[in-house]
């Protein structure tokens, strides 16, 4: 649930066991913009007066005997919703029967009391632990995210996450199993995604870890696009995700991608409206320039972020990389001039692919990303077109052993293959910014 306003976190640990190294690595500098950790994180459209009040635990009540009691778990989520002025219908749905409620004790015991060897990672919301829920007939692996009460994110993100995921049901969205809203504790319980996040497979690979191959990258891109299509086109009301990035694409068995972290999600514009005005939130490098400058959020803001993710998949470069020369630090800034000349395209591809990609597929994938990251939101495609194109790309399996692939790896591909390439330079000419 990273967003502008999530300040840098630094690890306070000094030991250097493997678990702690992972901890230290994941609590890395997050490039987020829009303020400091002390900023209020509510949007202009949804005034939120009670965000910080949970720290003094408004959920306690005194019974007839003068004993402080903790209210029913469902009531506490409803109170969160009320305090945030979210609409009652949504609140009713939330406390509906989809997500289970857990006690803090149940979740503590599922994670061995949040043991460090169950630690999976940490984001703006707090730490994430692997847990095991024992049911009468099965043992279920889950990921448990615990709100850091001193952290940058809060009750708003918690409630929006529960609301959105309670309403959603799609194979490319992570499933919310339940939550705990006991006292001032806020925890979210998700299905466990065994392969972690896309970021773990794309950037800073530990030595010996195999990079993703071309087919898997296209499969991930297509699945993530389908998840986004569900949010934009099939949810009622439609939802703008606002936090699409590699660390929020989680991977299940066989690299099945699922979008996660809906704390920043917003209901899309309705009626004649073209946008929703919000305080700017999101993550550096992924945020559409039009949204960053005006605060006007549209479905096309998500399309821009998707284009950045697709570029990361193709190039293996990070959305923002401070280790590069200043002019190349922003991935889109680096890519735009290169989009103009087809002779650059083979230089853009991730060197870790070692030439194992289809030339035509590369050009098509670059064309899609170039269209998504156009400066003008109206020039960006709608998500259904992105899905169509990526489903096609993902279903055209690349075989590294085919004769044309080996010809190219030997450096003799140019004439034959180049003629079949789509004219990407032409397609991107309309992007005045490049
Ligand atoms: N359902 C899950 N299954 C397995 N691992 C998970 C799950 N959810 C999160 N993780 C792990 O925990 C890490 C932290 O996730 P989290 O969403 O809190 O932060 P983030 O996405 O890295 O940053 P941000 O706060 O900016 O979204 C992820 O990178 C992932 O490795
Ligand atoms: Mg995340």
UniProtKB/TrEMBL annotation:
Residues 396-405 have a biased composition (Low complexity). Keywords: ATP-binding, Cell membrane, Kinase, Lipoprotein, Membrane, Nucleotide-binding, Serine/threonine-protein kinase, Transferase. It is a lipid-anchor. One of its GO terms (biological process) is pollen tube guidance. SUPFAM superfamilies: Protein kinase-like (PK-like) (SSF56112). PANTHER family: OS07G0668900 PROTEIN (PTHR47985), SERINE_THREONINE-PROTEIN KINASE PBL5-RELATED (PTHR47985:SF41). This is Probable serine/threonine-protein kinase PBL5 isoform X1. The lineage of its organism: Eukaryota, Viridiplantae, Streptophyta, Embryophyta, Tracheophyta.
């Amino acid at each position: 649930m990273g967003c502008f306003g999530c300040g840098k976190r630094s690890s306070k640990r000094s030991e250097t066991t493997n678990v702690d190294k992972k901890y230290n690595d994941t609590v890395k500098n997050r490039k987020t913009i829009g303020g400091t950790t002390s900023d209020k994180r509510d949007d202009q459209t949804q005034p939120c007066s009670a965000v910080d009040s949970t720290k003094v635990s408004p959920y306690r009540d005194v019974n007839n005997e003068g004993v402080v009691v903790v209210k029913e778990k469902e009531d506490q989520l409803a109170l969160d919703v009320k305090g945030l002025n979210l609409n009652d219908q949504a609140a009713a749905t939330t406390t509906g029967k989809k997500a289970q409620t857990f006690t803090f004790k149940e979740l503590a015991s599922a994670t061995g009391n949040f043991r460090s060897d169950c630690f999976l990672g940490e984001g703006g919301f707090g730490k994430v632990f692997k847990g095991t829920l024992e049911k009468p007939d099965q043992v279920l692996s889950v990921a448990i995210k615990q709100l850091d009460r001193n952290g940058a994110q809060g009750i708003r993100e918690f409630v929006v996450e529960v609301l959105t995921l309670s309403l959603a049901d799609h194979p490319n969205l992570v499933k919310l199993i339940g939550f705990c809203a006991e006292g001032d504790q806020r925890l979210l319980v998700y299905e466990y995604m065994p392969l972690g996040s896309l970021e773990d497979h794309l950037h800073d690979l530990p030595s010996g870890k195999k990079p993703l191959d071309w087919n898997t990258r296209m499969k991930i891109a297509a699945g993530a696009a389908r998840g986004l299509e569900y949010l934009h086109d099939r949810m009622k009301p439609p939802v703008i995700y606002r936090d699409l990035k590699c660390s929020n694409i989680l991977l299940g068995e066989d690299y099945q991608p699922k979008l996660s972290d809906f704390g920043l999600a917003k209901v899309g514009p309705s009626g004649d409206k073209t946008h929703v005005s919000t305080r700017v939130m999101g993550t550096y490098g992924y945020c559409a320039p039009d949204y960053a400058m005006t605060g006007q959020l549209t479905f096309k803001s998500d399309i821009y972020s998707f284009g950045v993710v697709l570029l990361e998949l193709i190039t293996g470069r990070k959305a923002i990389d401070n280790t590069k020369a200043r002019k190349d630090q922003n991935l889109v800034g680096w890519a735009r001039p290169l989009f103009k000349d087809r002779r650059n395209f083979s230089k853009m591809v991730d060197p870790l692919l070692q030439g194992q990609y289809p030339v035509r597929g590369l050009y098509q994938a670059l064309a899609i990303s170039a269209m998504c990251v156009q400066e003008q939101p109206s020039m960006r495609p709608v998500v259904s077109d992105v899905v169509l194109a990526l489903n096609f790309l993902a279903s055209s399996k690349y075989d590294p052993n085919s004769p044309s692939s080996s010809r190219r790896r030997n450096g003799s591909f140019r004439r034959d293959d180049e003629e079949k390439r789509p004219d990407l330079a032409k397609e991107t000419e309309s992007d005045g910014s490049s």
